[in-house]
Amino acid sequence: MTAPHRRVLQATALLGVASLALAACSGGGDDAGSDAEAVDTASVLETGGEITVWAWEPTLEQVVEDFEAENPNVTVNLENVGTGNDQYTALQNAIAAGDGVPDVAQIEYYAVPQFAIAENLTDLGPLGAADLDGTFTTGPWNAVHSGEGVYGLPMDSGPMALFYNQDVFDEAGVDVPTTWDEYLEAARAIHEADPKAYIANDTGDAGFTTSMIWQAGGQPYQVDGTDVTVDFTDEGTTRFTEVWQQLIDEDLLAPVSSWSDEWYQGLGDGSIATLTIGAWMPANLESGVPQASGQWRVAEMPQWEAGAHATAENGGSSLAVPAASQNAELAYAFIEYANAGDGVATRVDGGAFPATTAELESDEFQDKEFDYFGGQKVNEVLAQSAADVVDGWQYLPFQVYANSIFNDTVGQAYVSGTTLDEGLADWQEKSVTYGNDQGFTVNP
Q1: Between the CA of residue 112 and those of 54, 124, 280, 319, what are the distances in Å?
Q2: β-pairing, 153-154 with 317-320?
Q3: Residue 94 lies in a domain
Q4: Is 387 helix (H, G, I), strand (E, B) or coil?
Q5: 260 within domain boundaries
Q6: What distance in Å separates the CA atoms of residue 183 and residue 199, rounded to the nearest whole number?
């Protein structure tokens, strides 16, 4: 499981990635992976060798152990050099130095374009990834593509759902909302019944905001090579801000930051009644909020139109092969095992939420009952959410930077008189300026 962007990268940490993009896309270098041939996995594994994997996802430890047991000629050095942005900084530093670059790197979906467009990643399509179309759900599979290339294999996914505390809703006499208008009414009713209780917490989060706009049908980012459009005035964005601004204005959101001690406490004592979040959340609730076992349930994400079934992704990671790897074929053989082979079952058993359609559609996966959620078959809801992800979403090729300035722009709507629309306009302006400064052609 991979939580979304909990840590904010310093604005300068990955400037090198974006500033390389114009040269990379203008024909100044060979396409990464263009000379690769489909991997003869059996032969590569028999020959063996040693690879280094940078990743923080905990279930990979067992995957590596099993992989080495099945392939005794292969040594996998699994290293955790930091979570998310900490690793991206280390990876970019190694790429810039031309030394110490790993053979495999865990990269969250939102960050893939920023590395891919600078040709820092190998195109895995010619190595065999092109034959995996249909193996993964739409959201994660689209997320690892940049142009015609495939720059990672999806490791997990984060289709969104509504996690809610059934006891809080019962005590307030409120039905679980199926639309965002009902959600707003439920927020008012819960807070009126208990002024210490809120329907949700939110202090401003880039990943959550873009996911909500995604579900609403918004497409604020349009990317075609180095031609980029940033537009937060589309209908999907407006749908989100109209509802969420009311929640902010009426003080219906707990002013608590996610992943803080106060947040865990609120999830446990009922003062935070819902989370609209990715499918990787169950294991976090089980381990982080054990005192609320039996109280929580999972439902479809509320809809912008009654009767619709639209969701978005929130979080999730790929495993990618840096272009500087000297052992790309063996690296690909490993990530194919981990993300499309026997390693998938190992990771699911360890609590990960898969991106593979076979697992998501299996009876064994969907019929699992979760004691924490009152015996509910949670995966039925989450697997359906994966199938309902809205098509067409794109991230910026400098999304890591954009997310790093979110709190200074949109985030001001939570702490000052600024509105979400004003904050989004500011975010748009600063993103456009930055992209143009880095060599992209960015239009509002």
Answers
A1: 15, 13, 19, 10
A2: antiparallel
A3: yes
A4: helix
A5: no
A6: 8
Residue 3 has pLDDT above 80, yes or no: no
Indicate the pLDDT class of residue 139, thresholds 50, 70 and 90.
confident
Angle at 429 between CA 425 and CA 430, to 5 degrees: 120
**Nearest by Cα to 390 from 306, 304, 319, 322:** 304
pLDDT of residue 69: 98
Domain count, the chain: 1
Q: Tell me the backbone φ, ψ of residue 10, rounded to 5 degrees.
A: -60, 145
**Residue 224: inside a domain:** no
Q: How confident is the model at residue 37 (pLDDT cuts 50, 70, 90)?
A: low
HSE of 161, CA atoms in CB hemisphere, 13 A = 24
β-pairing, 253-254 vs 200-201, is parallel
**Which domain range does residue 21 map to?**
15-157+315-369
Mean pLDDT of all residues in 26-37? 43
Distance CA 260, CA 273 (A): 16
Alpha-carbon distance 230 to 248, whole Å? 25
Can you give the pLDDT at residue 34?
43
> Could you write out the DSSP letters of every residue in 173-240?
T-PPPSBHHHHHHHHHHHHHH-TT-BSEE-S--HHHHHHHHHHTT---EEEETTEEEE-TTSHHHHHH
CA distances from 86 to 14, 82, 187, 259, 363 (A): 11, 5, 36, 17, 38
Q: Are 105 and 319 in contact (CB under 8 A)?
A: yes
> What whole-number distance in Å separates Cα of residue 251 and Cα of residue 245?
10
User: How does residue 225 score in pLDDT terms, banded at 50, 70 and 90?
Assistant: confident
- Residue 58 falls within a domain, yes or no? yes
- pLDDT (mean) for 291-299: 98
Residues 402 and 432: their CA atoms lie apart, in Å, by: 10
> 235-249 vs 420-437: helix axis angle to the nearest 10?
130
- CB of 39 closer than 8 Å to CB of 128: yes
